[in-house]
Design goal:
DHBP synthase; Tetracycline Repressor, domain 2; eleven-stranded mixed beta sheet; alpha/beta; binds fe (iii) ion; seven-stranded mixed beta sheet; single chain; Alpha-Beta Plaits; binds zinc ion; about 20% strand
Length: about 750
């Protein structure tokens, strides 16, 4: 074919291609290459017509792939040859109708570098303006009330663009072309400072005043992008202590927002991947290894070798951190586990006992969204909480399928909705046991159904009959499917990797309702989306007092000890100061002591007996501190825990675990040595069982899921060991391994159920 022959084709592009600078990008790209044609939005997607030589077409395709605007996500490109035209220029055609384009909604995005430079440029008309944004950055998901994504359907509808902003908005070549939140000091939102009593303070520069108040030790509620933060100066131990008291948060680490990468590096060690995550447009909190010589107050992250760090992601944050303060504690403004506050009036009611001042603004937050949290484990960045910056970006599947609503679990609730080949997971909703979170749960389901125009054919819920999400699902007039908790964990990980054949799943978790009505949580499942069999698990042990034992690991430790040794209890130093008789009576009477095979509880028991945390102040604290005691090393010695086969299922003997542990405690091993031994033994024992199951089933693909795999020592050594033994290992990197990932598994199971 003649290389200079002119051809014309039509591209139909779908994905996140609206309000993200996509049309100006295509315009410049096509013109730069010398292609003629046009671009416009339609209800089928963005339509591009291109006319030019083969070389020009080729160059366009390659640059489309590599140079698309940072916020755009192309999910499909369809291309067809069409007859040539007489045009000689490339034009943008205005949208012909208001019909919603089948595009996706962008997550909220951290301030871009262009806007940051303008923010601090004294010649710029937006100099120091806390709401500067453009098509490459700014609020999206949190300000959208309805579709199409157009200013009247966002919380920017109250602000009328001034002529200068309107001109930017209308100019296809401007960075603010169709940037819905576009604003300036003349026409956009503003900030002001309010005292505890609700009186507006007459500061000309409320941001500088806020910085001063923070340096003086005050707690300030700061309205941000997805909700309010409570801020204090992290160098001021008294201020941090006060914040802990008012928030009812004893020891759980606080996240820090720091001025820039350089300051971050003075507080934590950052790997290359952690640096990329920290500086990404999602701007999550990165849990990184804390440097011991920083001047951050001890009580910011007591007893924890990690520090949660994020960079400023709104212009307001940049301004707050540009003067006297280079770091701030920035924690969600709420009481423990309630949803984050978003509304000015609501904040002043709910937070009145907690804060000294409020830095408010008048750009409403329509949908709350907490900061996301990620951590690098085994060479990959993994989400711990997938929320602001990530939601509602879809998880893409290989095949189209029916629409399903998944209501998630109870704690760390996230809901999901599917449409065609996309799964939309909500932001972090929280623990449904409190009323505000439950209301937020219902509102989020309605909202996502509306903005993505999804009518689910099926609602999938956890088997646990007492979960509020399960109860809610049963009240809907939609066909129902109950899914076992650990089956959902298994399939969530399979869905991430598009696995569609039976695998071995090692699901190590806190608690989940089992198919037999007991509490599961230390499971080897063999299965896929259509079903599973439970092939191995820990021997179930009683949890004296149920939830009370979760808060007091020594009780769980005592229960496991008593279960193995009966009345001949060995003399364990860690138990000496506890009043053990009432617990033993509870166990003898089998009162309020549910049986569990949970791996999370086993960690609690072993940690407590080893002299670790006896009572916890936040979730998984005992396990986290016990893991840290191992100092990233596996022990020199290990035990291979025995299992017995009952009904074709390997049951891992608690006697073999606890007796081996006790002999080492009595031999005066340190907590660090015990932790190294325990982690090593788990890895060896799990790997041994996996090999047995491989022999029994012929399956060599292994999925690791469940909250316990947030333990990086366990996950890293488990992956390494299994790979050395010839397994293909799959782990989470798109959704959390904890219950924040359950909805993804529920959806995949629901879609398979409908299509089979
Ligand atoms: Zn920008
Ligand atoms: Zn303006
Ligand atoms: Fe779970």
């Amino acid at each position: 074919m003649d290389n200079h022959q002119i051809t014309r084709r039509r591209l139909i592009i779908n994905g996140i291609v609206q309000g993200v600078g996509f049309r100006p990008f295509i315009f410049k790209l096509a013109k730069g290459i010398g292609l003629s044609g046009s671009i416009y939005n339609s209800s089928d997607g963005v339509i591009i017509e291109l006319q030019g030589t083969e070389k020009q077409h080729h160059s366009f395709d390659s640059r489309l792939k590599h140079e698309s605007p940072p916020l755009s996500v192309i999910t499909s490109v369809e291309s067809e040859q069409i007859p040539d035209c007489a045009d000689s220029d490339f034009i943008i055609i205005a949208s012909q109708s208001n019909k919603s384009v089948s595009t996706l909604i962008s997550p909220d995005v951290a301030l871009c570098e262009d806007c940051r430079l303008e923010l601090f440029d004294s010649q710029n008309r937006r100099h120091l303006y806390p709401f500067i944004n453009c098509t490459n950055c700014g609020p999206r998901y949190t300000i959208i009330e309805n579709i199409p994504y157009d200013r009247p359907f966002t919380s920017m509808k109250h602000f009328r663009l001034c002529p200068a902003c309107q001109a930017e908005y209308d100019d296809p070549l401007d960075r603010r072309f169709h940037a819905q939140p576009n604003a300036c000091p003349n026409c956009g939102p503003s900030v002001w400072l309010v005292d505890k009593k609700g009186s507006k303070l007459p500061f000309e520069n409320p941001i500088l005043a806020t910085i001063k108040l923070l340096t003086e030790g005050n707690i300030v509620a700061i309205k941000g992008l997805g909700g309010f933060h409570l801020a204090v100066n992290p160098l001021d131990a008294d201020a941090v202590k006060k914040l802990r008291e008012v928030k009812g948060r004893d020891e759980k680490p606080f996240a820090l927002m720091v001025r820039n990468l350089q300051i971050a590096r003075s507080l934590v060690h950052l790997s290359e991947k952690e640096t990329v995550a920290l500086t990404s447009i999602q701007a999550p909190i990165v849990l990184a290894s804390a440097l011991s010589d920083s001047n951050i107050a001890q009580n910011v992250a007591p007893g924890n070798d990690r520090l949660g760090i994020m960079l400023p992601y709104t212009p307001l944050h940049h301004l707050l951190l540009s003067a006297d303060l280079s770091t701030l504690v920035m924690t969600s403004a709420n009481y423990s586990e309630e949803p984050i506050c978003i509304d000015n009036d609501e904040a002043q009611k709910r937070l009145t006992e907690m804060v000294d001042y409020y830095l408010l603004h008048n750009r409403d937050i329509y949908l709350r969204s907490d900061d996301s949290v990620v951590m690098e484990i085994a060479g990959g960045i993994r989400p711990i909480r997938r929320s602001r910056g990530y939601a509602p970006r879809p998880i893409l599947l290989q095949n189209k399928g029916p629409s399903v609503l998944a209501v998630g679990a109870e704690l760390k609730n996230v809901i999901g909705l599917s449409k065609d080949d996309k799964i939309f997971l909500s932001q972090h909703i929280g623990d449904l046991e409190n009323l505000e979170a439950f209301e937020f749960f219902q509102m989020t389901i309605q909202h996502l159904q509306r903005i993505f125009e999804i009518e689910p054919e099926l609602v999938v819920h956890d088997l646990h009959p007492e979960y509020l999400s399960s109860k809610w699902a049963k009240d809907q007039n939609i066909p129902l499917l109950g899914v076992q908790h650990h089956h959902a964990h298994l399939v969530a990980c399979m869905a991430e990797h598009n696995l569609d054949e039976p695998v071995i799943g090692i699901i190590m978790d806190g608690t989940g309702y089992g198919s037999d009505g007991t509490i599961w949580g230390g499971e080897f499942l063999v299965g896929e989306a259509t079903g599973f069999t439970r092939r191995a698990h820990f021997e179930p042990m009683p949890l004296p007092g149920g939830g009370a034992a979760i808060k007091a690991p020594w009780r769980t430790g005592l229960s496991y000890l008593y279960g193995v040794f009966g009345d001949n209890l060995p003399d364990i130093p860690a138990l000496q100061d506890h009043d053990i008789q009432p617990i033993i009576q509870l166990l003898d009477a089998k009162l309020n002591s549910p049986m569990t095979s949970s791996c999370g509880r086993l960690f609690d028991a072993v940690a407590a007996l080893s002299g670790g945390r006896q009572e916890i102040r936040y979730e998984a604290q005992a396990a986290i501190e016990f893991m840290q005691a191992a100092q990233n090393k596996l022990g020199g010695d290990f035990s291979l825990f025995n299992s017995v086969i009952i009904n074709n299922t390997h049951v891992i003997s608690m006697e073999s675990i606890i007796k081996n542990l006790v002999s080492r405690i009595l031999a005066k091993k340190t907590q660090g040595q015990l932790s190294q031994w325990f982690h090593f033994s788990l890895v060896k024992s799990f790997s041994h069982l996996a090999r047995l199951l491989r022999e029994e089933t012929g399956i060599a693909k292994i999925v690791l899921s469940g909250g316990v795999f947030q333990n990086r020592l366990l996950l890293e050594s488990m992956i390494q060991n299994l790979e050395e033994n010839g397994f293909q290992v799959f782990t989470h990197s798109q959704v959390p391994t904890n219950d924040g990932g359950i909805a993804l598994g529920q959806i995949a199971i629901g879609r398979k159920f409908l299509s089979s």
